Structures are given as C-alpha cells and as structure tokens.
Amino acid sequence: MSEQIPGQAGTEVPVCPRHPGVVSYVRCQRCGRPACAQCQRPAAVGIQCVDCVREAHARTPAVRTVFGGRVTHGRPVVTLTIIGVCVALYLLEMLVGGGLRSALAFAPAVGASEPYRFVTAAFLHAGILHLALNMYALWIVGSIVEPALGRWRYAALYLISAIGGSVAVLLLANPAGFAWVTAVVGASGAVFGLFSATFFVLRRLGRDATQILVLIALNFALGFIVSNVSWQAHLGGAVTGALLALGYVYAPRERRAIVSVATTAVVLALLVVLAAARYAMV
Question: Residue ranges of the Peptidase S54 rhomboid domain (predicted)?
Fold first, then answer.
C-alpha cells in the first residue's frame, strides 16, 4: 500500500512547508510553495512567504547614513538600554542601600585594584534629580548621535567617554588630598562625550552648532558653581568624546570601518596608558 505525504508532489491538498498540516491554497510568488496565513507577507505583486522575504532582505545592501551608521527604524535602542540600566540600578540601590554604590562607584584610590569602576560609575546616580537631568540630556543627544553613527560606534562613544571622565578625575586628583578617596558617580562624563560628538556631527552636516557649544559651556560652568559636581569628569568625557567623534565623523568613506575601529582602539589604549602612568607615579 502506498501513502501520500502532505505537501509532497502528487497530493491534492497543498500544505504550508513551515507548518505541516496547515492547508494553504495561496502560493509564494517567488518560490511557488504554499504559504499559510502566518507565513504570508504582502509584496509589491501578490504574496511572498516569510523565507523569501528574509532572503531578499539579506541580499539588500544596508542603507547607511552619511557617517556610515546603518539606517534603522524606531527608537534609539542603545540609548534606551543605557537609560533602562541607569534607572534599574537607581531603583536597586534604593532597595539594597548604599552597598551598591560602594561597590561600583569610582574613586582614584580604588581604581587600580578594581578597574571596572572606571565604567560602572557612569551608570550610578546620587539622587533622583541627578538621574533625571542626566537621562534627559542622554535622551536628547542620543536621539541625534545614535542614528547618525550607528549602534556600535555610539555604544563605544558612550562607554569610552565614561572611562575618559573617570581617567580625568584620576589625573587631576591629589593622592594626598580628599579627592583621591572621594567617590564619583553619574553619566555626566559620558553625556559630555555625546555633547562633543553632537557638535562634530552638526559641523560635518554643515549645520549651525552654536547651541550645542552654549549647552556645553553652561553645563561645564555648573561644575564650578554647584557643589558636589565633578567638572573633571565633564572635561575628560568631553575631550574623549571629541577624539572619538573626529575619527568617526571625518573618516574617509572607503576606509570608514577600519578608521572607526582604529580610533576606538587608540583612544581606549591612550586612556589605559594615562591611568597606568598616573598610578605608577603614586
């Protein structure tokens, strides 16, 4: 006795190859296979199956911004992720107390033995107002810089600018003074790096960058007016962000990828060397 297998040649009832047993008389316009309602995708002409649509997307060259970032639709994912982590850590700190800040905040005295603090400090905040101001600024500039540069360069810009802020605190602290053991927290250094990147993005596009310069100047001045604000971290983040942005924004189109990777590696290595040299002098 012979049997007929659903979906194979010779059967009278066509079934979806991705969902065996689901009958479908609608066929993909590209491959001709049956496609059930779950696998159907509207096309310019007729219906295509999800596999053909995925294959077509994979073959389509990625659309890039003028700076080489992959054009994406929707919200800035990296920016929202950073904001989510900062908010989550703030709420967690409220639940567990100051132990979290003691374990993750940066201070020059502990940076050599616990180097992860150069980064983790940028995700902690000293109060709800501190958190709100930094997250608002991050959302404003992140919505501009992330789509322009693309996700990986934007993430590198944020993280390395955060490290640059901590390194500046280290370089400008007196080992015999109170600043050497004072904990520093906040995303301000990283945000200042994004401020610098925004300036170069606007300049590269031929747009007026006066407003961002005023914003940088006003926020930097606050470090000298408002108590308990680390102007050193702001300065370090801004300089680091500027160095990275120069490589990202002005890289030749044909060498954009290698220049961006090289810029990231060189700036990060420079920060490591500066931190190591500072600790070697203590």
Answer: 113-248
Report which residue type is found at 77.
Answer: V
d(CA 164, CA 270): 10
Q: Among 188, 196, 230, 260, which one carries the catalytic annotation?
A: 188
Tens of pLDDT, residues 37-96: 888 888 777 888 888 888 877 775 555 665 666 656 668 899 999 999 999 999 999 888
166 catalytic, yes or no?
no
Return the pLDDT at 29: 85
For the question of whether the overall pTM of this predicted structure is more than 0.85, the answer is: no
Which among 125, 130, 234, 260 is annotated as catalytic?
234
Q: Any alpha helices (H) in the chain, and if so which ranges?
A: 50-59, 77-96, 99-104, 108-111, 117-120, 128-149, 151-171, 188-204, 210-225, 231-249, 256-281
CA-to-CA distance for 74 and 147, rounded, in angstroms?
10
Candidates 225, 77, 108; CA nearest to 175 is 108
188 is catalytic: yes
List, in order, residues 6 or more apart from 151 with CB less than 8 Å away.
Answer: 69, 70, 72, 77, 78
Q: What is the predicted pLDDT for the residue at 40?
A: 87
Per-residue pLDDT of 207-242, as tens digits, reads 888 888 888 888 888 777 777 788 999 999 999 999
Domain 77-281 class in CATH: mainly alpha
Residue 264 makes CB contacts below 8 A (sequence gap 6+) with 153, 156, 160, 244, 247
